Amino acid sequence: xxxLSSNIIRIFMGSIVAIMTITVSSADAQSAGDxxxxxxxxxxxxxxxxxxxxxxxxxxxxxxxxxxNPAGIGYISDSQFNISIxxxxxxxxxxxxxxxxxxxxxMSTAEQSGLGNIAILYxxxxxxxxxxxxxxxxxxxxxxxxxxxxxxxxTSTISSSFLPFDNEYRIDENGNLEELNDLxxxxxxxxxxxxxxxxxxxxxxxxxxxxxxxxxxxxxGVVTEAGxxxxxxxxxxxxxxxxxxxxVSANLILGNYRFDYSLTERDIFNExxxxxYDVLLDDGSLLQGFNxxxxxxQLRSDMVGLNFRTGISTTLGRAFRxxxxxxxxxxxxxxxxxxxxFVTRFDVGGELSYGELNDDIGSGVFExxxxxxxRLGAGLQFSSGSFTLTAEGELVDWGQLKLSSDEGxxxxxxxxRVIENTYEMVINAALGAEWKIGRxxxxxxxxxxxxPHESGLLEITASDAxxxxxxxxxSLGLGxxxxxxxxxxxxxxxxxTEDYWHAYPSDAGxxxxxxQVQINETLTKDVAVLELTWKF
Length: 536
Known about the structure:
- With about 525 residues, this protein is mainly beta.
- The chain is built from six helices and 27 strands.
């Protein structure tokens, strides 16, 4: 008869590991992928720039300039009010990369819509030149996406990923299990694996997972991300000389991020019976035969950050305009709450679960800071009659990302080392065109956002569901002037990128089993922005 360690040992170990969780596990909730996720921005803001896949670095007389080159708002000739709605549809096409999962499906879709921006620009009456001030709030990042997969796996099981490494458990001289590290401890309390004293006495690895390796199980997983970032901006631009505009802006970043992941495994062919697996509880009752298990992760992040921009824009003859802009690092404060839940259901005897309580291992709250890279942008605009062509580039050194915490420099030492050694400098590029025909403006463009690392795909953990590959955007736009004071603009943009998802948990020690289920994804984000501009 196999025996579970006593309740006293479990309570004792729970106290020890809970203390360890405060100082160690909380830091593991963040990664290089988290830093990148919270620092990336959408390719374009506003309907006009979305239709051209550009940012407006050369200098544009539009509220979008506050989010790129603030000198551009100096070109407006009348005060104006802008408001827009923004919607996204994200299609996720996926296939199995490794791990033995035979997928039943290959597509997931997520949608989001809401306020795109609201802004006001005031053309200050001056005796000479131009002076414009602006206030605005714009959605600059959307995290919405979903991966919903199902299939049969005869090669691997998530239960193997919770088995402790040799340095993660301790057994006393009498063969009693005394100690387990945090993740195995939580799974052990939920019956996902069991300690067998007789295996230890025989000199063998003393743990067996609930699912017998090689049996066929159904796996169902759902990964969802939600939330976004808004940028509240105050900007001022003035005409320094006849040909030169100068502008500065202060920007407050506000946002939230929500991540949920669940994986369910079911013994649909009844290959896992009471002969293969049982758990003896301290009260003498016996749980027999694996039926189903569930594993869930949750992460909630609230963010507030600050950065500054300064820019210059100048005309070169009648046809050309050139601009340069510098954006400081964004200093962001982040408060996160996180949790994990585990449950195992048996053929006989009921179920075991762990993680429902706030003080359970794997749950907690953590506060930290993120410093994003500085950014240098430049744009060149060519105009001839009613046609305008814009080319621009942005230099971003992703290796300058840095995480920090008041708990001390050691908390993020390894993560910052990974960022510094893995992420690299990139040049974001875009090309957009605008053609005015009567009351209509027709627009189009392309943009490329290179991957921040040489491989194109970075090794990511089960909490890193994000676009890490190269992003490529194409766009179309249409504007219509109802009167000299009222204009409506529509921007449509499609952004494609590739990444992959590891379905089994990893931690500071890396993947916890070799047979890792990898799902390769191609993400297509369709963006629509409808904007109203009123000049007054």
